[in-house]
Amino acid sequence: MTLQRPPVNSLNLDLLKEMSKSLDEIAKNKSKAMILTSASPKVFSAGLDIMEMYKPDLKRVEEFWTTLQEVWFKLFGSNFITAAAINGHAPAGGCLLAMSCEYRVMTGGNFSIGLNETALGIVAPNWFMDTMTNTIPVREAEYALTTARMFNVEEALKVGLIDEVATDKDDAIAKCKGFIGKFDRIPALARSITKLKMRQAAIKRLQDGRREDLNEFLQFVQNPKIQKSLEMYIQSLKKKA
Ligand SMILES: CCCCC/C=C\CCCC/C=C/C(=O)SCCNC(=O)CCNC(=O)[C@H](O)C(C)(C)COP(=O)(O)OP(=O)(O)OC[C@H]1O[C@@H](n2cnc3c(N)ncnc32)[C@H](O)[C@@H]1OP(=O)(O)O
C-alpha cells in the first residue's frame, strides 16, 4: 500500500477512508502480507492533517477521528503480515502507522521518526502510547513520549523503533519481503493468533474506551487554547517553507 497524497502524505479524512477501504480489500482477498510505504521521496507521512483539526466542522472531525480509530484497528489488528518500508520522515501519526505494522525498515538519510505530540502541547491518546510500548521498552517509550523525542535512523534502530536500515526504498521493500519470507515455514493460523494475542490488550482498551476517546478528542479540538496553538503551529510550518 503506497501512500500518495502530496506534498507530505498528511492523513486527512479522504486518505484515511481510502486506507480503511484498502485494508478491507487486503483482508478480503486473503493476501499473505502487506508492505506500507510512501510515494514521496522524503516523507513517509507527516501524521494527521492539522487542517482537519483547525476550526473543524464537528460532524466531519468526528468522522475523521472514528476513521483514524478504524484504520488503527484494521492495521494493528490485522490477520495478515504487515511491514513498513519507511522511506522518509514519520512524525506523530506517521510513526503510529509504522509502529502498527509488525516490522519496520527505514531508509538511511536525514529522516526522523517519533511521537512528537507533547512538543505541540498535545497528549498522545492512550492507543498511540500502547502502540509505542508494543514496539519499544516502556521506559524508552515514556522518555520518548514525554520529551517528544524524534529519533534519527541510527537512534531508532538502537532503541528498536525500527528493525533494519535500508539504502533506498527498493532495498527497504526487499528487506520487508525478507521479513515476510520468514513465515513461509510457520503455520499461518498459529502466527496470526499469536500476533493478535500479543496485541489484544491494546485493542481491547480502545474497543472499550472508543466513545470516551472520541469525546476527549472532540473536547480537545473545540478548546480555544488548542485552536490558538494549532494556528501558530500551522503558521510556523508555512513560514518554514
Ligand atoms: C488527555 C487526552 C487528550 C486527547 C487529545 C486527543 C487527541 C489529540 C491527539 C492528536 C494526535 C496528533 C497526531 C498527529 O499526527 S498531529 C501532526 C503532527 N505532525 C507534525 O508535526 C509534522 C509536521 N510536518 C513536518 O514536520 C514537515 O512537514 C515534514 C513532515 C518533516 C516534511 O518536511 P518538508 O518536506 O520540508 O515539508 P514542509 O514542512 O515544507 O511541508 C510541506 C507542506 O505541507 C504542510 N504540512 C506539513 N505537515 C502537515 C500536517 N501534518 N498537516 C497539514 N499540513 C502539513 C506544510 O504546512 C507545507 O504546506 P505549504 O506548502 O502550504 O506551505
Automatic annotation (TrEMBL):
The keyword Plastid does not apply. Keywords: Acetylation, Fatty acid metabolism, Isomerase, Lipid metabolism, Mitochondrion, Transit peptide. PANTHER family: ENOYL-COA DELTA ISOMERASE 1, MITOCHONDRIAL, ENOYL-COA HYDRATASE-RELATED. Homotrimer. It is found in: Mitochondrion matrix. It holds the Pfam family ECH_1. InterPro entries: ClpP/crotonase-like_dom_sf, Enoyl-CoA_hydra/iso. This is Enoyl-CoA delta isomerase 1, mitochondrial. GO terms for cellular component: mitochondrial matrix. Pathway: Lipid metabolism; fatty acid beta-oxidation. One of its GO terms (molecular function) is delta(3)-delta(2)-enoyl-CoA isomerase activity. Key enzyme of fatty acid beta-oxidation. Able to isomerize both 3-cis (3Z) and 3-trans (3E) double bonds into the 2-trans (2E) form in a range of enoyl-CoA species, with a preference for (3Z)-enoyl-CoAs over (3E)-enoyl-CoAs. The catalytic efficiency of this enzyme is not affected by the fatty acyl chain length. SUPFAM superfamilies: ClpP/crotonase. It catalyses: (2E)-tetradecenoyl-CoA = (3Z)-tetradecenoyl-CoA; (3Z)-dodecenoyl-CoA = (2E)-dodecenoyl-CoA; (3Z)-decenoyl-CoA = (2E)-decenoyl-CoA; (3Z)-octenoyl-CoA = (2E)-octenoyl-CoA. Transmembrane segments: none annotated. The keyword Hydrolase does not apply. It comes from the Eukaryota. One of its GO terms (biological process) is fatty acid beta-oxidation.
